[in-house]
Write a structure and sequence with these properties.
about 220 residues, alpha/beta, Rossmann fold, seven-stranded mixed β-sheet, two-stranded antiparallel ribbon, transferase, SAM-dependent_MTases_sf, Methyltransf_Superfamily, methyltransferase, Class I SAM-dependent methyltransferase
């Protein structure tokens, strides 16, 4: 799944036709419990699941899967140049780093010529709205152009969660400045069959404003 709307890779084929994934080396960034890598492995690909969170990778290890798990910073990938055919990230890594170009340039480095990067994240327009699934989530509460990070702190004042906002234009410029060619920008519509609410995502909001942006990039 690329996002809460329910768009899956079988339908979207953003990484390419599933039958062509067999034997491909794929890097999953911000893999969490490695759900995407597990699906890729089932298609015959050779995924590597990377996350900076050791705890998340422990979940992945408990669930199981015959592919490597790597605990590392996406801005300093521990791989040789041209190691992968594809890279992907579903709501991982990029929203949580202050300088996404560090990550994108590293991915560009480890991809082989012609390689593809596909990543999804919360649609930037959502930054201006409250993170609520009901009608209260449909009124603008802040500036879309305010790039101040969202930070949650513990009782000692230490940051425990940080998410960075980039406008849609910022994201496009980040992709291009990192050496990629942007070939598609997908904004999934909320399907009628999806009646679920999750966090700030819901059928009500999804039918009116975009919730996910998926960037499809190529390393020429």
């Amino acid at each position: 799944m690329w996002g809460p709307e329910g768009l899956d890779e079988v339908e979207a084929e953003l990484l390419g036709p599933p039958e062509e994934l067999k034997g491909r080396d794929v890097l999953e960034l911000g893999a969490g419990a490695a759900q995407c890598s597990r699906w890729l492995a089932a298609q015959g690909a050779r995924p590597v699941a990377l996350d900076i969170s050791h705890r998340q990778l422990q979940h992945a290890l408990r669930i199981g899967g015959a592919f490597p798990l790597v605990c590392a910073d996406a801005g300093a990938l521990p791989f040789a140049d041209a190691s992968f055919d594809l890279a992907c990230s579903a709501y991982g890594a990029l929203p949580f780093v202050a300088d996404p170009r560090l990550v994108l340039r590293e991915v560009h480095r480890v991809l082989r010529p012609g390689g593809r990067l596909v990543f999804s994240l919360t649609h930037p327009v959502r930054w201006a709205f409250p993170d609520e699934p009901g009608p209260e989530g449909l009124s603008v509460s802040g500036s879309y152009f305010d790039r101040t990070p969202y930070v949650e702190q513990d009782e000692s004042g230490h940051a425990v969660y940080v998410e960075h906002h980039r406008t849609l234009g910022d994201r496009v410029r980040d992709v291009v400045a990192s050496g990629f060619r942007l070939v598609d920008l997908v904004e999934p519509e909320w399907p009628a069959w999806n009646t679920a609410e999750w966090g700030g995502w819901s059928p009500l909001r999804g039918s009116l404003i975009p919730g996910t942006a998926i960037f499809v990039c190529v390393r020429d």
